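Progress report, Aim 2. The chain analyzed during this reporting quarter is listed below.
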Amino acid sequence: MRRDDICLYLGPANRAELQALITNRNTARKLVWRAKIVLATADGCGTVEIMRRAKTSKPTVWRWQARYLDEGVDGLRRDKTRPSRVPPLPRETRLKVIAKTVQETPSNATHWSRSTMAEAVGISPSSVGRIWADAGLKPHLTRGFKVSNDPMFEEKVTDIVGLYLDPPERAVVLCVDEKSQIQALDRTQPGLPLKKGRAATMTHDYMRHGTTTLFAALDVKSGMVIGECLPRHRAKEFLRFLRRIDRAVLKPRDVHLVLDNYATHKTPEVKAWLEKHPRFKLHFTPTSASWLKLVERFFAEITSKRIRRGSYTSVDDLEAAIYDYLGQHNTKPKPFHWSKTAEDILTRERRALDKIDEIRGNR
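Predicted structure tokens for the chain:
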């Protein structure tokens, strides 16, 4: 290959691939430009002619000719990396930023921002952002948590997780809870529909038309949900829902209910009913451990998919939407699979308690 007269042969497939890049409206302009240089070379154009067409220099033409000969179209797609003109930050500076982020707080705020950290360390805010990204630090975010102080935590977790992972033979395991105070909200104005370049809209203000409570029992094995909307969530309504479950689950199968410690689940009336229905066996979650209830996952889905963005003119309208969702869910139910073992949970619980004790001891 001579620099003053480069000969390049393109087979039909290679030529078609380059032509497709040029005619595709989504191809980057620089890639189209490089493909045209290669096609002009294959068509027998000299270097000076290609320079005129591409409006570029001779070394640039030679560069992309050589790149195509060495690597094909992949070589045209890739830009050569160039060393940064800005020298990298010293390791000591990076470690200082990380240490201050996790061990200190600014004097006038609860957490660091890029600008306050940049001022404290003497570097640019963008450098702080890169250091945080590399270290996986997000000081602007917090996650809520609550470590249970239930003295029976270990026994309850082992019991409930055992029901999820290895349910008893010829028994039904239902996770039961109430989603209370679901508001029938009607937006004050109709929103605009979704379109290209614009999200769907809804007004920030609304009119309230009452509330309802969804009682739900999630079958852990099948994913089906027994649901009923009631105006309140007292022991009276809970008993009514227990009777609904009793009618829905064929006898003589045992019914294991996973419940939280809400007072209406433990009233004398409820206990009296349970004594007359010995096939019902209750398993209470530890205090501050609502994450153990699988039905919460169902509540999250019905909220995000059906309730939150809806507009309802009455409680009846809201309840109709809920029952419609339940009906469609139960036609194609999918169970939520519990993956954590009891030992995994207890190990993390002990580690969290040890860390809390350590923090308290340092104060």
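The chain has a mean pLDDT of 89. The beta strands are 171-187, 206-219, 225-230, 254-259, 280-284. These observations will guide the mutagenesis work planned for the next reporting period.
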